[in-house]
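Repro:
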Amino acid sequence: MILFGAALFAQSEDDFDILQNRAGGITITGYRGTEKNVAIPETIGGMKVTIIGLRAFFNKSLTGVAIPETVTYLESQAFANNRLNSLTMLNCVIIGYGAFADNQLTELILPEGAATIGPMAFARNRLAGIVIPGSVIHIGNSAFEGNPLRSVAIGANRNIDNGQGFDPSFVNYYVSTGKKAGTYVRENRVWTLRAEPDLGRENPDGLSD
């Protein structure tokens, strides 16, 4: 869960364009509201909101968003090209291609249960710190590209590489520790290993790129 900054406002159901999906829930396909701090509803018309569709909130000048636990899938560029500096995300098993690219997020705690982080998912934000839970089994190419990462909390034995947008020095240091779990911190251009966080379930197969 990520909790930052701005107050979030409830929206009218009419602010959202929707489509019933094959899983029996609601896909939000567009946003017509005027609020820049958006609280996505758990239900619309009595049905659970489970998917945020392709570019549904693309380029809406949003500054904050709260995504409820019912939402498990964010499609490509769902929240890309906004000004997001506040994000609450409770579930989201699949975070698609470029879902939060080109925003202003500074910290990221991926929700326990997140499994797939798509290519370019958080590219070109302002992320200084990220927490990757043990549930994550796939990180796509350039997922964290263009971020000034100085802190990475990660589990043991993860298969990561700089092609995913990580600093090559971090990747090299993580490997040099024997891929130990912990919080890796960059100071004066040097990475060190700090405390070992509880990141939940470990994936014995590591991460794929």
